[in-house]
Amino acid sequence: MVNIEDLKKLREETGAGIADVRLSLEEANGDLEKARKLIVQKGLNKASQKVDREVKNGIVEVYGHANKVGVAVEVLCETDFVAKTEDFKTLAHEIALQIASMNPKSAEDLLTQEYIRDSSITIEQLVKSVIGKVGENIKVGKFCRVSLSE
C-alpha cells in the first residue's frame, strides 16, 4: 500500500502523473529516493521516444550576470502551450545560467557538461527530465555568450 503523503510529495516534486508516481513507489517498496530515480528514468525513456518530433516553438532566454556576462539562448519545443509553462521557462533559465558559467563552445558541448546545480547529472539529462514532465521534444538551439573580460 502506497503512503498517500509520499505520493503527494513525489508528485509535487516531479510533476509526474499519479499513476506513474504510484507505480514507482510500489516498485521501490515505498523508498522515496528510489521512486524518484525510477520516475526520472521513466522520463528519460519517454524523452528518447520524442527525439524525432519537430520543434517549431519555444523561447529565447536572456540572462545577464553582474553586468559582465550576457547570454541569449534559444530553447525549442513542439507547441507554444509548453513554451509558456513554468517547467519550460525554468529549464531555459537554467540553461542560460549554465552557458554563462561554463562557456560551452557548442550545443553538443553544452549537453555533455555536468549541470552546475547538480553534478550528478548532465545538461542533456536535465533536458530529458523536463521532456518527461511536459511530454514534448525539447532542444537547445542557437546561443551566444558575451563577456566583458574576453
Characterize the structure shown.
The chain is an alpha+beta fold. It folds into two domains: 4-50, Ubiquitin-associated (UBA) domain (Helicase, Ruva Protein, domain 3), CATH 1.10.8; 57-147, Tetrahydropterin Synthase, Chain A. Helices cover 53% and strands 23% of the residues. The protein contains seven helices and five strands; from the N terminus they run αααββαααββαβ. The strands form two sheets. It has a three-stranded antiparallel sheet with strand order 1-2-5. A hairpin with a 2-residue loop joins β3 and β4. α3 crosses α7. The longest helix has 19 residues, at 32-50. It is elongated and about 60 Å long. The mean pLDDT is 90.
Q: Which properties best describe this structure?
A:
single chain; 150 residues; alpha+beta; Helicase, Ruva Protein, domain 3; Tetrahydropterin Synthase, Chain A; two-stranded antiparallel ribbon; 7 helices; 53% helix
**The CATH topology of the largest domain is what?**
Tetrahydropterin Synthase, Chain A
In helices, the fraction of residues equals 40-55%
Strand proportion, as a percent range, falls in 15-25%
Distance between the termini: 58 Å
When the domains are counted, the total is 2
Unreliable spans are none
Biggest sheet features:
3 strands, antiparallel
* Rough outline: elongated
Strand tally is 5
Succession of helices and strands: HHHEEHHHEEHE
Helix and strand arrangement:
Layout: H1 4-14, H2 18-27, H3 32-50, E1 57-65, E2 69-77, H4 80-83, H5 86-102, H6 107-112, E3 114-115, E4 118-122, H7 123-134, E5 138-147
Antiparallel strand pairs: 1-2, 2-5, 3-4
Helix pairs in contact: 1-2, 2-3, 3-7, 5-7
